[in-house]
Design goal:
By secondary structure, the protein is of the alpha+beta class. The chain has 10 helices and 23 strands. It has a domain of 231 residues.
Length: 461
């Protein structure tokens, strides 16, 4: 992807100017995106992006530049410019002739580039037809298709020289239902770190009908009442709540600077004893997984909270220096245009000892949050809010009426202590996370859990 001698020259130039650490990130990315609305193609794009990012660390200072001109002359010129002001001796760093990182394999069978464009369009049409014919209240169906093949090369002054290929595909189905002038939407977005064979492993029509069912249920629902009440969050992408509420506060980009509610709390109880939180970027073929992170570190299973005790953080190389700790395979970036930092991969609450049925039957009155659509958090305070895509009242220990317009408001530290039941039906959903190093593919999941009291926002119809 980039001549080895050129990589060596970049590292030599940077270390000669006093850089403590030098990293070269090379990317060659092929992406296909198709967007259909009502069966008509709104957008169809197949493109390639190629570029190089150069990062130099001097002490705790970071210098970063990127370019899509991969000529030796340009790359050396950029390296010289970003090292201006760094003073140091010639360290003559050499790249180890062998790769010291071996990427975890995420097998694929069919490269998306080997699948005809017409076949990809046919996939979107199948989803559209299944959703549109679900019920007469369905007014519009949008289907977005994505595949990506990202080839990367990472080399640094510590001897890392490693290449990897990431093959992803995903289908996002958004269904609108309309009744009496009101519109509600349902969404599903199955995806995986694998090739086009993914569509032979899932039932496209079943996913489309699920999105339609969600939209129909919500358009016919009453509005959610507001107040403090127990909240049961269903398994799967309901884990986005903990991704936002506490995951970001466990990233070293916040922790290392003391800007997190969890800074300096290793070994302390920060959650209920029934809570074990994990981030694992090595799960085979999972949407948020990687063979190596974007700094060339092997991905791994990181235990963050074990039975309520804080066990670890998500750490990238720069913040590892700040914290005097080891990197955890958590350095991520959207592309060569972004400097990496600590980010989540597949983050989930692990299985507990209860069942979903036990949790529901032991909740006299409350809210059942079946789907979470979006949320945000302030890592410094842990304050968060989430909107629910599908919710129901729990009355007399049973799930009853659907309600719409529900939001969950709270604090990450508080909610961790208030989880009092965790089921044994772990499932991980697929999504995106937006932060300083760009938009990333992430998994978020959990079993069904109960929070004994939360602030629920809603309104009367």
């Amino acid at each position: 992807m980039l001549n080895r001698d050129i990589v060596q020259d970049i590292i030599y130039e940077a270390t000669s100017s006093g850089g403590d650490f030098v990293e070269v990130f090379v990317e060659n990315n092929f992406t296909t995106e198709i967007s259909t609305v009502g069966g008509n193609i709104e957008k169809g794009m197949a493109g390639r992006e190629h570029g190089v990012g150069i990062r130099i660390l001097s002490g705790l200072d970071s210098f970063y530049a990127y370019t899509n001109d991969a000529s030796r002359e340009n790359l050396i010129s950029i390296t010289k410019r970003i090292t201006q002001g760094i003073k140091g001796k010639n360290k003559n760093a050499l790249i180890n002739p062998r790769a010291i990182t071996s990427p975890k394999k995420h097998p694929y069978i069919i490269l998306p580039s080997k699948t005809e464009f017409a076949k990809k369009i046919e996939i979107t049409k199948r989803a559209m037809e299944a959703a549109m014919t679900y019920d007469k209240v369905i007014s519009q169906v949008t289907v977005n298709y994505l595949d990506q093949v990202q080839n990367i090369l990472i080399a640094n002054s510590e001897g890392v020289y490693v290449e990897d290929i990431r093959v992803r595909t995903r289908l996002m189905i958004i269904v609108a239902a309309e009744k009496n002038g009101q519109i509600e939407t349902g969404f599903v977005g199955p995806g995986a770190l694998m090739g086009s064979e993914f569509y032979d492993k899932i039932n496209i029509e079943e996913f489309a009908r699920e999105a339609a069912r969600n939209a129909k249920t919500m358009v016919l629902a009453d509005y959610c009442p507001a107040g403090n009440m127990p909240v049961v969050v269903d398994n799967g992408f309901g884990g986005l709540m903990f991704h936002e509420a506490c995951g970001h506060s466990l990233e070293a980009s916040s922790v290392a600077k003391g800007n997190s509610v969890f800074s300096n709390k290793l070994g302390k109880q920060i959650a209920s004893e029934v809570v074990t939180l994990v981030d694992d970027g090595s799960i085979t073929n999972a949407w948020g997984s990687l063979g190596i992170d974007d700094e060339g570190t092997a991905t791994q299973k990181n235990l963050l909270i074990e039975k309520g005790i804080l066990k670890g953080y998500l750490i990238d190389k720069l913040n590892a220096k700040r914290m005097n700790m080891k990197a955890t395979g958590s350095g991520r970036r959207q592309s060569y245009r972004f400097e990496p930092t600590s980010r989540m991969t597949n983050t989930y609450i692990d299985n507990g000892d209860s069942t979903k049925e036990e949790i529901i039957s032991n909740t006299e009155q409350g809210l059942f949050a079946k789907g979470i659509s979006a949320g945000s958090v302030n890592p410094a305070t842990g304050d968060f809010n989430f909107s629910l895509s599908e919710a129901y009242l729990i009355e007399n220990g049973k799930i009853t009426r659907p309600v719409k317009g529900a939001t969950l408001i709270g604090n990450g530290s508080t909610i961790l202590h208030d989880v009092d039941m965790v089921a044994n039906n772990l499932s991980i959903g697929q999504g995106y996370c937006y932060a300083s190093s760009g938009a990333l593919f992430i998994g978020a999941g959990q079993p069904t859990i109960r929070v004994k009291s939360m602030t629920v926002g809603g309104r009367e119809e």
